[in-house]
From TrEMBL:
InterPro entries: Gfo/Idh/MocA-like_OxRdtase_N (IPR000683), GFO_IDH_MocA-like_dom (IPR055170), NAD(P)-bd_dom_sf (IPR036291). Signal peptide: none annotated. This is Oxidoreductase. It comes from Miscanthus lutarioriparius. Belongs to the Gfo/Idh/MocA family. Residues 15-134 form the Gfo/Idh/MocA-like oxidoreductase N-terminal domain.
């Protein structure tokens, strides 16, 4: 029997299984409740009790949501179409490839892997199984991002992007710095680089339409904990045509989420690019063809503010888009959308090069292709 919906019926919702009860999974559970075309069918944890508690605490329909006391049991659930996987990075290869092998589409938390070779194993498994892969870089799906793309592409207003700067930091409390998986070398060995640095690298690549830089040089004197995990670091990226980008990321400084794109004709500023200040509205500022006012006592013209509203949170929009792609494969015999794994892989390649430069004492490292 075909699972396709009748022409006048909406497509059957994509049934998600949440594989692991990490704190970030709470946000995605909420997004799945809000997103059209999505439903939470099951939660899997290392104990059935923990999975049941997660479902109850996060507003899931306890009667309709199956709970599994192992990850294997969730992957074997025939009613699960897709898996959201928020496990520690060191476990991604094992469980993402297992999910793909069972025909489950994979929405994978970032950083997606410890290195590009590991990511390639995941992408190969998804490709072999014909399932959709997407990482969970949620700001990519906010309508502000699409509006900013229109602005970046306006050559009259912005010109050619030549310089990009990005910062993502937050001041972690002592408990996070001591106990969180992001500071444990056996769980998330990339530390701040993999967590907040991932967003900076993605934003930079987004700004240049995913053209890989030629070389990266890590900023000197990164901060590490006693186990050698990065707590603060950064790098400068260099393109063959002279474009440059610099980012810094940290668990040790005030909450900051800046991206600045400087073009030959204009500049775009965003001060909350990862998580907007407000859920239903986000803004960015554009300074175009700027010059000094008379006597150099101001600017002329003044920068313009652009406000973009959204009815759904960016996480729900991400889930909605992922569900749409899954429905196209499941119900209409479509092929997985290739742009998402390609963008993930480029992000990982730059991250790998930054890590290599850090490990080599800030020597230049060429970015692999």
């Amino acid at each position: 029997m075909s699972s396709a919906a009748a022409p006048d019926q909406p497509p059957r919702p994509v049934h998600f299984g949440i594989l692991g009860c990490a704190s970030i999974a709470r946000k995605l559970a909420r997004a799945m409740l809000l997103a059209p075309g999505a439903a939470v069918a099951a939660v899997g944890s290392r104990s059935e009790e923990k999975a049941r508690l997660f479902a109850a605490d996060n507003g899931l329909d306890v009667a309709a949501t199956r709970v599994h006391g192992s990850y294997e049991a969730l992957l074997d659930d025939p009613d699960v179409d897709a898996v959201y996987l928020p496990l520690p990075t060191s476990l991604h290869v094992r469980w993402a490839t297992a999910a793909a092998a069972r025909g489950k589409h994979v929405l994978l938390e970032k950083p997606t892997a410890l290195c590009a070779a590991d990511l390639d194993a995941i992408l190969a498994a998804c490709d072999a199984a014909g399932v959709q892969f997407m990482d969970s870089t949620m700001w990519m799906h906010h309508p502000r991002t699409a509006k900013m793309r229109e602005t970046v592409d306006d050559k009259d207003a912005i010109g050619d992007i030549r310089t990009i700067n990005s910062v993502f930091s937050f001041r972690a409390n002592e408990d996070l710095l001591e106990n969180d998986i992001r500071v444990k070398p056996d769980l998330d060995a990339l530390g701040a680089l993999g967590d907040v640095g991932w967003y900076c690298i993605r934003a930079i690549l987004w700004a240049v339409d995913y053209e890989l830089p030629k070389t990266v040089i890590a900023l000197r004197d990164p901060v590490k904990n006693q186990a050698g995990v990065l707590l603060a670091c950064g790098a400068t990226l260099y393109w063959a045509d002279g474009r440059t980008a610099t980012f810094s990321c940290s668990f040790l400084t005030n909450l900051t989420m800046d991206i600045t794109l400087v073009g030959t004709n204009g500049t775009i500023h965003v001060t909350d690019f990862v998580i907007p200040y407000e859920e239903k509205s986000a803004e960015f500022h554009v300074a175009s063809k700027s010059s000094f006012a008379d006597l150099h006592i101001g600017w002329n013209p003044l920068p313009s503010k652009h406000v973009v509203a959204t009815d759904l949170p960016q996480e729900a929009l991400m889930v909605q888009e992922f569900a749409r792609l899954v429905q196209g494969i499941r119900d209409a015999g479509g092929k997985p959308e290739g742009k998402w794994p390609a963008i993930t892989r480029k992000t990982q390649l730059v991250l790998d090069a930054v890590k290599a430069s850090i490990d080599k004492g800030s020597e230049p490292v060429e970015v692999a292709s």
